[in-house]
Amino acid sequence: MADQAGSTLETVDILRLLKLLPHRYPFLLVDRIIEIDGDNSAIGIKNVTFNEPHFQGHFPEHPVMPGVLIVEAMAQTAGAICIRNTAGDRPSLVYFMTIDNAKFRRPVVPGDRLEIRVTKLKQRGNIWRFGCEATVDGVKAAEAEISAMMSPKTTE
Questions:
Q1: E-assigned strands of 40-124?
Q2: Domain boundaries, given as residue ranges, for the chain
Q3: pLDDT tens, position by position, 68-78
Q4: Phi, psi angles (nearest 5°) of residue 74
């Protein structure tokens, strides 16, 4: 975490996220990142709304955010702080490598505010590993360990 002797934690709003991540609607799954400590840790926020396209089919009578999208929100939060810390505005891509120990504890439904905590477990070169936890109102909804690789963005 941040050094308690005068260090301040930063935030990233949606406009900055759009510069950092290549994702766009409907696949940008983080609305804001708060309490960033370099590439060590951060808290991402996803406001879950009923008008998101996946709720049309998952499930029409009982809308539940798919677990795979919760894991993607974790990865986007981790990826954004990696890109922000290492590349600034220079275009880069972050690729998923592994998802381990994923567990889903409670449904995430429209109206929920998903709080995504990511903590760097290890970094070696351009590869990061993060411990992730998603909560709603302080109750754990999901957890996973993810690893990803940073790669320069190529233009063709």
A1: 41-47, 92-104, 113-124
A2: 10-152
A3: 999 999 999 99
A4: -60, -45
What CA–CA distance (Å, rounded) separates 120 from 53? 31
Specify the pLDDT at position 136.
98
Rounded Cα distance, 46 and 33, in Å: 9
Helix (H, G, I), strand (E, B) or coil at 107: coil
CATH domain 10-152 topology: Thiol Ester Dehydrase; Chain A (3.10.129)
pTM over 0.85: yes
Report the chain's C-alpha Rg in angstroms: 15
DSSP type of residue 53: G
What are the angstrom distances between the C-alpha of 6 and each of 3, 9, 34, 39, 52? Answer: 7, 10, 18, 18, 40
58 tagged catalytic? yes
